Amino acid sequence: MKKALVYTVGAAVLLSAIAFAADKPASNAAKADPAKANTVKIAKMNATGKVIEISEKAIIIERTVKDKVETMTFVLDKPTENIAVSDAVKISYIEKDGSLVASRVAKANPRKLEKKDTFKPAADKSATNKK
Questions:
Q1: 93 close to 103: Cβ distance less than 8 angstroms
Q2: Distance CA 108, CA 104 (A)
Q3: How many CB atoms lie within 10 A of CB 21?
Q4: What is the DSSP string of 32-84?
Q5: What SS3 class is residue 95?
Q6: Are 90 and 62 in contact (CB under 8 A)?
Q7: 78-99 pLDDT per residue, tens
Q8: Adjacent-strand bridge partners of 60
Q9: Residue 15 lies in a domain
Q10: Any idea what the CATH number is for the domain that residue 63 is in?
Q11: Quick one: DSSP state of residue 31?
């Protein structure tokens, strides 16, 4: 009886050792497309201002933020057309390696400030209604 118990325990230890030694298949999460796992969206920002200086490789604008004048320098991927100094522009850009890279430069439509008469005295209706 003791021999049968020892053989059974020994066989169980041997079979469990074989089971633990077998290779385990890789999990399904590791098989996912690596391009999708590493996708990082880059924030695209906008700036609107007046052109101070423009060249083939860079553009410098001046913009006002909360009553403070700020100068920004952008690196251009490609030269811009129909943009001159003192034009109002809108620039879409990203920050790359510590510099601002302009992806799109377009002329901005400056808002036309028209003076409107907000106070118009109403005609005296009581005088017009009396006959």
A1: yes
A2: 12
A3: 7
A4: S-HHHHT--PPPPEEEEEEEEEE-SSEEEEEEEETTEEEEEEEEESS--SS--
A5: strand
A6: no
A7: 888 888 888 899 999 998 888 9
A8: 53, 73
A9: no
A10: 2.40.50.320
A11: T
**Quick check: is 31 in a domain?**
no
Query: Comparing C-alpha atoms, which of 112, 77, 113, 107 is closest to residue 93?
Result: 77
Per the structure, the count of domains in the chain is 1
> For residue 62, what pLDDT band results from cuts at 50, 70 and 90?
very high
Handedness of CA 124, 125, 129, 130 (dihedral sign): negative
Compute, in degrees rounded to 10, the torsion defined by CA atoms 54, 60, 62, 66. Answer: 150
Contact 56, 76 (CB under 8 A): yes
Q: Has residue 49 been placed in a domain?
A: yes
Buried b (16+ CB within 10 A) or exposed e, 23-48: eeeeeeeeeeeeeeeeeeeeeeeebe
